[in-house]
Design brief:
Layout lengths: L3 E2 L2 H21 L6 E7 L3 H17 L2 E7 L5 H13 L5 E4 L9 H7 L11 H8 L8 H12 L8 E5 L6 H9 L8 E5 L6 H5 L4 E4 L16 E5 L3 E4 L7 E4 L4 H4 L3 E4 L6 H18 L2
Parallel strand pairs: 1-11, 2-3, 2-4, 5-6, 5-7, 7-8, 8-11
Antiparallel strand pairs: 9-10
Helix pairs in contact: 1-10, 2-10, 6-7, 6-10
The structure holds NADP nicotinamide-adenine-dinucleotide phosphate.
């Protein structure tokens, strides 16, 4: 079996170069510099890393970026006030509120408070509803990144059986909708699985395309994957590793070493879906700045 390892680093680099070129062109034409803000509530290490990577990516493509840091004990009311300010900030094209939020804050309320015009993470009900109806909208960044990956590698999807593990509102559910759409990549027969699914292995073994967003380290093993499948690993987990300078390394939801030899295509962790999520966020922000 010829194995291709999908490089989210390479694909995202290409997308970021295209965005940077477009930004330069737009500014030369007198258009504004795209501006993205990220709101970080609390001190969670992983969230800080993601937000910092997003801010750095903005700088690299010529965007303006603002980091709004709020204390772990910030009330829901205070966060909603902050969101109102960002909604009304005319220089700002888009913003994200990094999830997960501290337990005392209702994520649904926060997501719904973001103006759909600035919803570059694509989590607002209006964005998700438009996605369902095939109308132009901000697609959720992670599923959108996966779609770009499949496109870049010309991975056939029409008539294929796509199995998605996980039904979160930000990854699994929108992913299942996009893979079933009447377009490329899409036109799959989709099975969406979750914690109540019976005989999961029986189902994953039928997958031509297996998209894993379960949030359990190395959950998918070789005996769950069909020969020649495409496997997309969304999971990110930090595990302790004394040999690393920062004391940890990243692994995914898929046991990469044993699954990869069975695959036609597989996305690794790190260097797979993660960088694509950021590239999609930048793409959505550029769109938001143009269609203001
Ligand atoms: P989540 O909200 O925790 O959802 C996990 C899903 O997995 C749920 O739908 C759950 O089912 C399902 N599940 C749990 N145990 C299962 C089992 N034994 N069999 C089948 N399904 C099972 O996760 P998420 O937010 O989608 O994130 C998933 C992973 O992706 C995490 O590791 C996260 O860090 C990572 N992530 C990465 C990126 C990126 O940019 N690379 C972006 C977002 C998330 P129920 O609904 O029944 O509970």
């Amino acid at each position: 079996m010829n194995l291709t390892i999908i490089s989210g680093i390479e694909v995202s680099k290409k997308i970021k170069e295209e965005i940077a070129a477009q930004v330069k062109l737009n500014i030369a034409k007198g258009m504004k510099t795209p501006h993205l803000a990220a709101v970080l509530v609390g001190d969670d290490g992983a969230s800080k890393t993601y937000v910092n990577a997003k801010v750095k990516a903005c700088e690299a493509v010529g965007f303006k970026s603002t980091l709004v840091k709020l204390d772990e004990n910030t009330t829901e009311e205070k966060l909603l006030e902050e969101i109102k300010k960002l909604n009304n900030d005319t220089d700002l094209d888009g913003f994200i509120v990094q999830l997960p939020l501290p337990k005392h804050i209702n994520e649904q309320k926060v997501t719904q408070a973001i103006s759909p015009l600035k919803d570059v993470d694509g989590f607002h009900p209006e964005s998700l509803g438009k996605m369902l109806l095939d109308l132009p909208s901000f697609l959720p960044a992670t599923p959108m990144g996966i779609i770009e990956m499949l496109k870049h590698y010309n991975i056939p999807t029409e008539g294929k059986h796509c199995v998605v593990i996980g039904r979160s509102h930000i990854v699994g559910s929108p992913m299942s909708v996009l893979m079933a759409r009447n377009s490329y990549p899409g036109n799959c027969t989709v099975t969406l699985t979750h914690s109540r699914t019976k005989n999961l292995q029986e189902i994953t073994l039928q997958a031509d395309i297996l998209i894993v967003a379960i949030g359990k380290p190395e959950f998918v093993t070789a005996n769950m994957v069909k020969d020649g499948a495409t496997v997309i690993d969304v999971g990110i987990h930090r595990i302790e590793d004394a040999t690393k300078k920062n004391g940890f390394r990243l692994i995914g939801d898929v046991k990469f070493d044993e699954v990869a030899p069975k695959c036609a295509f597989i996305s690794p962790v790190p260097g797979g879906v993660g960088p694509m999520t950021i590239a999609s966020l930048l793409k959505n922000t550029l769109l938001a700045s143009i269609h203001k």
